[in-house]
Amino acid sequence: ISFINQQIDKQINKPKKELTSFVQLLSFIQRFSQQKIQVLQQTSSIRSLLSSQNRELRKITSVLISRVSASFLQKSYQTKESQLKEAQQFDVPEEFDFYIDGLLLCLSDSDQFVRQTAAFGLGQIIQKLPILFLQELVQAVFDCCSEAETAETWNGALQCIGELLRTSSISIKDNKGQLLKILTQAFQNKFKQQNMVKDAACFVSWALARSCPPSELGTEFTQQISNNLLALACLDRDICIRRCAAAAFQECAGRWRSEFIKNSIQCAALVDFYKLGDLEESYFGVAVQISQFQECYRVTMLKYLVDQYLMNQQQAARTQVTTLISKLYQQDDWVVEEMLVNLEDIEDWVRFSASCELLSYLPLSVEQKTQLAKALTLQLQNFVSNQNADIQHHLTQNLCSVLLVLQNSLDQQLISQFVKQVFPQSVRYYFQDLAIQNYDRIFSNKVLQLKRHVDSDQTQRDDDLLNAVNLLFVENNQKAEKCLQIMKKCRSAAENVVRIYVLEAVSAHNFQPSENQRETESLYQIISLGLNDFTSDTRGDVGALVRHKAFNCIKSHFQAQNLQENEKFAQLYKIAVCQFCCSRVEQMKLLGIKTLFRDANLLKIPIQSQKYVQVQQKEDFIFDMAELTNEELQRQIEKSDSALIQNGFQLFKDVFIKDPTLKFVCLKQLVLNVCYGQKDEIAETVLLIKDLKQEEFYGFVLKLLDKITNQGYQGQLQFSCILISNYLIHKNYVPNTVQLKLLVEKIIAYMKQEQINFNAFQTGFSVLGFVVKNIQEDELQQSCKNELLQYLVHRTVKLREQSFDVILSLNLDNQQIEEMCQVDWMSLNVQKAEEKQKWLRGVVGW
């Protein structure tokens, strides 16, 4: 022992690997030795070891000093009848205090295992102390739970308290008030690492339920603990904390019974382990149900939401919380007062944003909103001058929320002043920074309320102010025409959000086609423009969002029985279903398939195929699509036909094949998918198309190639046509002579465009090469040969590195190319022709 102490003293200032082993050896000697040993008598040695950067060394040191301290207390004095006798027989050396200070210091350690070891060691020591000295050490542990301490200190102290309660080492009667205060503060703490404190508080509650009868605690104590545990179990954003609090509450409910906890059995059943795994279910399912049992549960949850979870930097989290608050809110004036206090803090934009959003959700009176409008306007003007980009982005969200608060206010002058001073500086910031992956439909709709005012040139009177801000305020008999004007004006990819908002406004309006023919025609054009929006930019396929909104728009009107009798809209709805069933976007494909099943009767589509019908108890029935989610739909369809999702065309081929218009829509979408597909996907698509007659399919292709372009959606579609024609022609799916001549002319015209990519160029070469080699038509064959050589010489000057690929794409042998080189296809002068022919022969020789 003396040797080990000497080695430890030597290595304290310059620790080595052996230091941990020496301390661990001393710990085992202390554990198994029958005699008292003297170790680490100097305070500096203890503190040096406990402040080491080695986590394992700190942990073993805390174990050692707890065992040494416990060795001084061989008997348990708490069973003595006379406290005076206990005090007379109690005697410990002076270093005992140093060891206790070391353990209290370990409660604040940054490592969880060190804190656990110290808490367990203190619990073992306190069990052996006399009653006179026990309360002093317990109070020292309680003092660690103060506002000035860190989250680590709170965690260590609470673990120690839980250990003392588990072993019944402290008197509940003497410490009940202090214990309730500590637990309440722990549940509602706002530390950065608050989860560790909440977790330890749940452990204390669990230990309290197991060790203390409810009669000693009282109804008020047990109900307050239960309220906090339920709020934590339902509302905390960390799944581990929710489940930990639920386990502690179930322990309390089982041991304290319904007379001490209201509706304990129902609440314990609701806070199920699996239900709490989903935050949405926990918020809007479990929390809402529990709040209906007792008023105390509702108020506690409301306070937790306002104080703890509303101030979140993430927009989605704040929206979720504010939505739940609006469900729990029942004219609680203290909520509004709390928000007014938050609005006074102009430095914290997160608190300000949360307050604005919450006030826009609450069902406040006009007088309350007018009162709040003044505070909101004043603080927002202070934020406008801030140049911080993050604050500016959130300021735009604040502006949207403020507008919703103000629009029902009676103070029109205040609204006008607010709009003119604050709107323009932040609205355009949002549109400049908008990315497709960050698109938020609800938020964008709010922003567009602001943009409509910024873009308006003049307002004649105060009532026109909100009309200019929001399309929903436009009079009903002018709404569709107004929307159509904006839809035609805003056609660029950067303005896709404006088109989405127009469709949102159209969806919200209850149109009656029989009342106004002009409105009906405007509505039809708006939805048609949305369904054919294939705009794209560096952000991706921004038109996909517009198409999705247009589909939902016509579906909502159709299901509301506004347009079912209108043949024009019925046909448009069928076209939309065809387009979505063929889409490459999985979400759109599922939406199209689901709509096809659910609205088959509305669309008057006879679905007779056994592929779409399940057999149960010898009776055929069609899927009940009313409440079927996308995931359930996908599972049901995969049971019926595994290829249904992969090949959307198969779903409605037998349904729509008799309608020329719908068949054209199907083929158009299917051919477009080829542009983005792999070879195996192209092969599967071809198998479907080959069911059509050759003249019909190539007539469809020539129709798409009518106006040659390589830009945008139409350019992608035409490239897809050339790609799939090349594939089919090489599979002997050849058109007739007339169609082949027209196809070659279209392909040559497509290849003559500027800035054509190499894949399209090579695909066109492949088609022309096939014609040269396989079609016995002299005029057509010679024309293709001339075009091939012309583009081979001219275009490969820019693509010399890939010129060999071009040669191979001709699908010709060397002799044929040699013969073609003799053709004077350009009527060039002799010198240039010979140079190009010589270069071409060199390439062929390779």
Automatic annotation (TrEMBL):
Q: Which GO terms describe its biological process?
A: microtubule cytoskeleton organization; post-chaperonin tubulin folding pathway; tubulin complex assembly
Concerning Pfam families, the annotation shows:
ARM_TBCD_2nd
Which parts of the sequence belong to the Tubulin-folding cofactor D ARM repeats domain? Answer: 73-256
InterPro entries hit by this protein: ARM-like (IPR011989), ARM-type_fold (IPR016024), ARM_TBCD_2nd (IPR058033), TBCD (IPR033162)
Return one GO MF term: beta-tubulin binding
Bilayer-spanning residue ranges: none
Q: Which PANTHER family match?
A: BETA-TUBULIN COFACTOR D, TUBULIN-SPECIFIC CHAPERONE D
Listed name of the protein: Tubulin specific chaperone D
Q: Which organism is it from?
A: Trepomonas sp. PC1
The beginning of the lineage is:
Eukaryota, Metamonada, Diplomonadida, Hexamitidae, Hexamitinae
